[in-house]
Design goal:
Length: 376
């Protein structure tokens, strides 16, 4: 039986049914991996960490979660560390001993209880030759019958980067032979990159996981949040106002929570005032300004063009516009948009769609850019 697990965040809207659906599909045994995608800030990570993982634990799975975007500079050590945390504490020490690794801190942890969080990653990052074999060994540790693990790889599109091909291949090989014991959920905000990862025959994870949209939060979520607000506020919030606000905030739970927060602080001003303040904040965020300031002029221009819906960035008229925006009196070189797009993809600001089309990753940033255009 799945025990409901109390969430530490009182504002978390639990999604036990969705978690159950995922685990049941794994139980049936036809698929051992799933890929899910949704735009940014739609609640993927919160669902994975606060609903799916606790539900899996309650069903007896060992669980490991890794956000690959946070780990993008050294994903292999971080993965090793996440997997070793999923094992019993003694496991890693035994493993290091058996492999006769030069990992001093890991060995020392056999004497002192536990290994400080992060110290394994740091040690492995200094010693990349050890991380690969350790990963294979760790996965082998899950071969015992009845030992089940759920591995959640958040921001999985990072694995599609050329720099991480080796990791992707060895991970796939390691997981392939253990489909009975290790179930994997891949999540990410870049649908096109994930599609490429699972849909292209040259990619290591080709055909490995069915990819589907993440079920978004909707009316039920809004109503549940409204009743939490109404338990606290002397000024009742209506479902109707809250639903209108949710829609105006592009159905984005993160922005909706900001709105509720604002409503609770200034309830006497009413819902429209809270919505207006939230829109001002999220679509004109200071953080966008910081990102913007750090970009090269060509990258800024390309972003503005994308926000306006221009797709064919290599065409002559667009390069003419780009050229004049950059103070040239001729079209920008063909390399200019190409290099800008590469940099913007590396920064996770832009995603490549098929047919050479590109799109901004973040709706709120796109809206901010369009407003910027109006102001100047
Ligand atoms: N189930 C939920 N209950 C309450 N609030 C939620 C829920 N899911 C998401 N939120 C709100 O939305 C925010 C963003 O969610 P989350 O970080 O999970 O999005 P994400 O889809 O992983 O985004 P990104 O692609 O940027 O990583 C959370 O910090 C929280 O404020
Ligand atoms: Mg996330």
């Amino acid at each position: 039986m799945t025990k409901p697990i109390a969430s530490a965040d009182p504002w978390h809207y639990p999604r036990p049914e969705l978690a159950k659906k995922y685990l049941e599909i794994f139980d049936i045994g036809l698929t051992s991996a799933r890929g899910l995608f949704a735009k940014r800030r739609m609640g993927k990570s919160e669902f994975l960490e606060q609903d799916l993982i606790p539900a899996a634990q309650a069903k007896g799975y060992l669980t490991a979660y890794l956000n690959l975007w946070d780990a993008r500079t050294h994903p292999t050590p971080s993965l090793v560390s996440a997997l070793s945390r999923a094992m019993e504490p003694k496991g890693l020490f035994k493993l290091a001993k058996r492999l006769n690794t030069p990992l001093k801190k890991v060995k020392a942890s056999g004497k002192v209880p536990g290994l400080a969080e992060g110290s394994l990653e740091a040690e492995l990052a200094d010693d990349p030759a050890v991380a690969g074999p350790l990963l294979s060994e760790l996965l082998r540790g899950f071969d015992k019958p009845g030992k089940r693990m759920l591995l959640v790889l958040d921001e999985a599109q990072v694995l599609a980067a050329p720099a991480h091909t080796e990791l992707a291949h060895s991970l796939r090989a390691g997981l392939d032979s253990r489909k009975q014991n290790i179930k994997v959920v891949f999540a990410g905000s870049s649908e096109p990159t994930l599609r490429r990862m699972f849909g292209r025959s040259t990619e290591p994870f080709y055909n490995w996981a069915p990819l589907e949209p993440f079920e978004l939060l909707g009316t039920e979520f809004v109503k549940a949040m409204v009743s939490k607000v109404n338990n606290l506020s002397r000024y009742p919030l209506t479902d109707q106002d809250a639903l209108a606000a949710f829609l105006a905030l592009h159905n984005t739970p993160e922005f909706f929570r900001r709105y509720l927060n604002r409503y609770l602080a200034y309830a006497e001003l009413g819902s429209p005032a809270a919505l207006l303040d939230t829109q001002k904040h999220v679509f004109n965020g200071a953080n966008f300004h910081d990102i913007w300031k750090k970009l090269l002029p060509a990258d800024q221009e390309v972003l503005k063009l994308l926000a306006q819906g221009v797709t064919d960035l290599h065409s002559e008229p667009v390069r003419m516009r780009l050229g004049s925006a950059l103070g040239l009196d001729k079209p920008a070189n063909k390399n200019t948009p190409q290099h800008a797009l590469r940099r913007l993809q590396e920064e996770n600001l832009v995603a490549k769609l098929d047919y050479g089309n590109y799109q901004l990753q973040d709706d709120a940033f796109a809206e901010w850019l369009r407003n910027l255009e109006l102001e100047t």
